[in-house]
Design a protein that fits this description.
The protein is mainly α. The protein has 5 helices and 2 strands. The chain has one domain. A hairpin with a 4-residue loop joins strand 1 and strand 2. Helix 2 crosses helix 3 and helix 2 packs across helix 4. It is elongated, with a radius of gyration of 29 Å.
Length: 174
């Protein structure tokens, strides 16, 4: 297929949507996933993700400010939420691509392939950005608990005592 025969699609949105490159509501794709994806686009653009959970960076119930460990937990939760959204939204769009492929509606199939590409790239880029933010955090590593090493001689003594108890119990009952 030559490049002259390829048709590229311009996605049609309303004015606000085209400004932020939202995903429109799609046929047979869960609206909650689309809403979550659109919030995913807004988070890095407007920064409301920073104050989404705690508006003043203070835990009222714990009576303390948020530290790097708390921020890492929030980022990890967002990363996991994005990964789940990626899987679910990709699956639903892919199902619609398969549906349009079997019904020979190649125009709609190509449109949904474009949406799939957009969704996957956006969420992948957001997760990459979150991972970079996590890596920049200075998190105190917990102190390691040293394992006590049991020497060979100690094992021999324990084995001897166990064997002696076994012999005693065996002889006592039989």
């Amino acid at each position: 297929m030559s490049s002259k025969n390829l048709k590229y699609y311009n996605f049609t949105y309303d004015n606000d949507v085209s400004k932020f490159q939202y995903l429109p509501y799609l046929y047979n794709v869960t609206k909650e996933y689309v809403d979550e994806f659109n919030k995913n686009i807004l988070k890095p653009k407007f920064g409301f993700y920073q104050t989404e959970e705690n508006s003043n960076n203070y835990y009222e119930d714990k009576k303390r400010y948020i530290n790097d460990d708390d921020i890492k937990k929030l980022y990890d939760a967002r990363y996991l939420k994005n990964s789940i959204l990626y899987e679910n939204l990709t699956l639903e769009i892919y199902n619609m691509i398969s549906y349009y492929n079997t019904s020979n509606d190649f125009e709609s199939q190509k449109l949904y392939e474009g949406y799939l590409y957009k969704v996957q790239n956006q969420i992948r880029a957001e997760n990459k950005r979150i991972r970079e933010l996590i890596n920049k955090l200075k998190i105190k590593k917990p102190k390691r608990i040293e394992k006590k090493v049991i020497s060979f001689n100690t094992l021999i003594i324990i084995l001897f005592i166990t064997f002696s108890i076994f012999l005693f119990v065996y002889n006592y009952y039989y």
